[in-house]
Amino acid sequence: MAGRLLLVLRLLVRDLRRRPAETLLLLIAITAATGTLTLGLALDDGAALPYEHTRSATAGPDVVARPLSTGDDALADLAPLTTAPGVTGHSGPYPVAFLELTARGNAVQAVVEGRDTAPSALDRPAIIDGTWVRPGGVVVERAFAEALGVHPGDTVDVGGHALHVLGIAVTAARTTYPYAGWHFPGSPLSERGGLVWVHDRDIATLAGGEPTTYSLNLALDDPAASEAFIDRVRPSLDRADFDGGLTLTTWQVIADLDGRPVERAQEPLLIGSWLLTALAVAGVSGIVAGRIAGQRRRVGLLKAVGAGPAMIAFVHLAEYLVVGLTAAGAGLVTSWLAAPALIHPNAGLLTTAGPRPPSLSVVVVAVALAITIAVAATLAPAVRAVATSTTAALADSAAPPRRSRWRIRLSRRLPVTLLIGVRMNARRPHRAWLVTVNTFVTTTALVAVLMNQVQDRSFPVGDADLANPLTEGTGQSVFVVTIVLVVLAVINTAVSTWTAVLDTRHPLAVARTLGATPGQTGMGLTVAQLLPALPGAAAGIPCGLGLFLFAWRGRPQYPPGSWLLAPGLGILLTITLCTVIPVLVLSRRPVADALQRTPLFRVL
Description:
single chain; 604 residues; alpha+beta; six-stranded mixed beta barrel; two-stranded antiparallel ribbon; 21 helices; elongated
């Protein structure tokens, strides 16, 4: 057993050292897929961390109560909650008014909460810049401030009164912009808006004749059972003298809403990871098929010395399993380091210190994906190698080309260029299929990205259109996936084209001896790459539209039809350019050199 493992190890090291360029391409392809997937999964694992950190730093409440009633009725509705079973502490009630705020010419809806200058035991907003509230000033929640473009020292108008911006703060007691819970007094329907704090002496003046309501923060003896607390106290609030409605919001609900920007950023990464997996399988399959085909004589030697099918299959799989595991590790490290730089949490939350190592589940998924890609790309060529007879493998003779009557009938009536292209694909249908898959996946992704770019990003808040924080992380994720996908698609195209050039240099030399010009053979090779790419590009356009509509929330906007054709045409142009360069190199070689290197029976 030790001798067999030593043999496998020596063959593995020898193959990796002899073909470093192909090994690097395999590593890049699998790393791209595993890294993107683990980046998306890492976001899912760490989506709640910023809120948990903010809640801890600001003494966030476990439950927040907000009545629909106003004035003394609101205070009466909140009073029973302070002594309810399970409540260990509270802060407030704080006066709240729903007013209009104007900054830099933008009139938006603002939830204005009155606070004292002294910090409270529960819900202490963390000052990011500037100072806390005092009479005549306002403190703006950070996500809201970024959307408005205001900073400490600026002047804003709140309810018709000019106030100086004293500071920027974050809190865990209310959902950040744009879902701070603005609504008309007495209405349960919330609208978009942001949160600001003012001194409690100023709120009556700012509100003018508008009624004010209140907000109450509660601390529980069991924060994890906040939903059970609400179910327990709700029946006692449904009394005869209770006229208004009461909204009880748990910290888990606030955390979920504040984590939506990260969730939105996660979706393109997960979808893109599956597209990259398909590209990785296609690219790795092309490289692996060529490498195993070049190892047929070694298969014959292993069989001649007594190696069985399992041993031969393991020899072929071991190299790619090692590459896959290495790529999984590289993908995990890359995603771990890239996550803080590429994806930012909600601006209304405090960031955590440093990247978080991937969890065990993420590591398992990454390793499983890398192994799946390696096995899926290697299994079929390995089985064909095992099924090859010892004599045929030692002879290392070329497999006879597949010929069918309908292909011959079709191709013989075509021009020389098309004839060469059709017959090249007929001899290597597997390679043509990989070109189709590569083109299809790339076109699908690029059309979906194009659709995402033409959508209207305006985000109405009151009478103004502000930035949408939900789409900022999404844009970064789409950019990352697009760059990685384009790079991997170009690598696949270059590898497929170069493999086709090396594989067809002898048949093309024979075609030139029979009268074909260098231009006709070169165009024939280009046609051989374009023919399988055409159906992939054609099918990728509607599939890209479908993929975008599946993931998009809301009414989509469509670009002109010519724009949708651009990704497919661009990919076909890229394939043509990738083919022209090796074709020019091949056309300069004398025909005699190509024919002398290989016996005639292998060419025919």
